[in-house]
Amino acid sequence: MSYPTTVSEAGSALYLGDCREILPRLPAGTVDLVVMDPPYNIARPYALTRAGGRVRSTQEAWGVWDQYAPRRYEELLRDVFRELARVLRPGGQVYCWIGAEGIGQALAAARAAGLRYRAKLVAVKARPQPSFRERNWRSCYEECLYFAKDSAWPFHFQGQRQMRNVLELPYEPKASRHPTEKRPAMIEPLIRVSSSRGQVVLDPFLGSGTTAVIARRLGRRYIGIERSPTYFSMARRRLAGEDPGRA
Asked: With 0-12 CB in 10 A as exposed, 13-18 as middle and 19+ as buried, what is 114?
């Protein structure tokens, strides 16, 4: 079951439910920009992370939402990119944060949907997780694929120094208890560059709401879709200026 919540800003909405069920309901050609952070499908019982003040396996910390059989993960990306290509207007753009193991699948799904690959961005973390077992290289960055429907517009070039495809992230504390929350510095430059005031920014994997919060602050309209009632509540609280930790 899914439903839109009441949002005070005209033209903006949040939806609780699976994006594969909700995206087909959106009119074609009505979205200007997509910024999304789908599951990376990397939760494992042997991979460690710090969550809730202690070291846990990523499988325990993140839960079932980040665990797909390979074919099911390919289907998820294929279904989502197909609908994104439909709801985007000509010139609309997509930024997709993705795990290293899913880059090939995301590229294939986007190209099958008719989107054009333009670049890959890398965000270098200010405080990456330590290597808890000290048996591998530390993971110190995240990757984002950039696509467009036809020729990308608008594209607000910010100057040669600011337009490098490597984002050096400042330290930003989390705004909620979401275990993989994207920080504002990973989202704001994308919205500034690839949309204009009043345009519609869509996030089909909203999580705790960072994309919607930044879009509203920059004068854009937003559409957010989240299937977890817990994370959906966090996003609503953040947009209302409340503490999302009480969700």
From this structure: middle
Check whether 61 has a pLDDT greater than 70. no
How deeply is 133 buried, as exposed, middle or buried, from its count of CB atoms within 10 A (0-12, 13-18, 19+)? exposed
Confidence band, pLDDT 50/70/90 cuts, at residue 129: confident
pLDDT for 247 equals 46
Q: Judge if pTM exceeds 0.70.
A: yes
Across the chain, what does the average pLDDT equal? 89
Residues with Cβ < 8 Å from 126, sequence gap 6 or more? 169, 170, 171, 172
Dihedral of CA atoms 140, 144, 145, 148 in degrees, nearest 10, equals: -160
Give the number of other CB atoms < 10 A from CB of residue 239.
21
Domains of the chain: 3-246 (3.40.50.150)
CB 56 within 8 A of CB 113: no
Q: 3-state SS string over 145-174?
A: EEEECCCCCCCCCCCCCCCCCEEECCCCCC
